[in-house]
Amino acid sequence: MRIAALALAGLAFGGVDAATLQGRVSLSLDGKPLRAEEAREAVVYFRPNRPLVLQAPVDVVEMKMERKQFLPRALPVLQGSTVRFTNFDPILHNAFAPPGPQHFDVGLYGKGEAREHRFDRAGLVRVYCNVHHDMVGHILVLDSPYFVRPDATGQFRLELPDGAQGELFVWHERARLWRRKSVDLSEPTAVELDLSRPRVPPHMNKFGKPYGGQRSGY
């Protein structure tokens, strides 16, 4: 998915020589550090100062519905990507995003079935299940091909065009957006995020009504 976009980005910068941006994301809650692997739900991305002309990816990206969870819980994709929502559970699921610029609804279906949706608008998409209140996923639709999720140790590595100027962002669903305009490539970037937002945001079902007895599914 990202190879063609990266090639076009290299051309936009006038070359394909790469520079490496490295760092580590660490999380805390109520002043106490969390396990390093929890940083895998963060998304690190770099937005160049010069806008890039990117073609829509050909490959489909998957977000699973398994064990009453969206997996991965945080999914970064390039603008124009198609995401496949596959149900691996022996129960019904219905992924949707609330009314607004990123609204979609793939309908209700069972195990082994899948539906797709193309995301043409950059921005954050909060994904819910109309059957299970506590199922929450996040799709970060980006207008830059330079993004990555930290590994199990919280470390991240981004390959950027040599001499690229721009801004570095680190997103996590439960923290304020971290951003830095001036990035020093000569040493690792340390990112510390304090989690203060709820893991399941308040929300209604796709009809704009409370879940009520549907919270435990069926």
Which tags fit this structure?
disordered N terminus; 218 residues; 1 helix; 5% helix; four-stranded mixed beta sheet
Characterise the protein shown here.
This protein is mainly beta. It is 5% helix and 42% strand. It contains one helix and 17 strands. The protein has one helix spanning 2-12, and strands at residues 18-29, 32-33, 43-48, 60-66, 69-71, 74-78, 81-87, 95-97, 104-105, 114-119, 123-129, 136-142, 147-148, 155-161, 166-171, 178-180, 189-194. A five-stranded mixed β-sheet has the order 6-12-11-8-9, with no helix packed on it. Strands 1, 2, 14 and 17 form a four-stranded mixed β-sheet that branches. It has a four-stranded antiparallel β-sheet with strand order 13-3-15-16, with no helix packed on it. The longest helix is centred in the N-terminal third of the chain and has 11 residues, at 2-12. The protein is globular. Mean pLDDT is 90; it is low at 1-15 and 214-218.
Protein topology:
Layout: H1 2-12, E1 18-29, E2 32-33, E3 43-48, E4 60-66, E5 69-71, E6 74-78, E7 81-87, E8 95-97, E9 104-105, E10 114-119, E11 123-129, E12 136-142, E13 147-148, E14 155-161, E15 166-171, E16 178-180, E17 189-194
Parallel strand pairs: 1-17, 4-7, 6-12
Antiparallel strand pairs: 1-2, 1-14, 3-13, 3-15, 4-5, 7-10, 8-9, 8-11, 11-12, 15-16
| CA(first)-CA(last) distance | 36 Å
Q: Runs with pLDDT <50, length 5+?
A: 1-15, 214-218
Helix/sheet category = mainly beta
Biggest sheet strand line-up: 6-12-11-8-9
Strand content: 35-45%
Order of helices and strands: HEEEEEEEEEEEEEEEEE
Count every helix, treating DSSP H or I runs of 4 or more residues as helices: 1
Kindly state the number of beta strands. Answer: 17
Largest beta sheet, briefly?
Answer: 5 strands, mixed
- Determine the mean pLDDT: 90
- What Rg do the Cα atoms give? 18 Å
Shape: globular
The helical percent reads under 10%
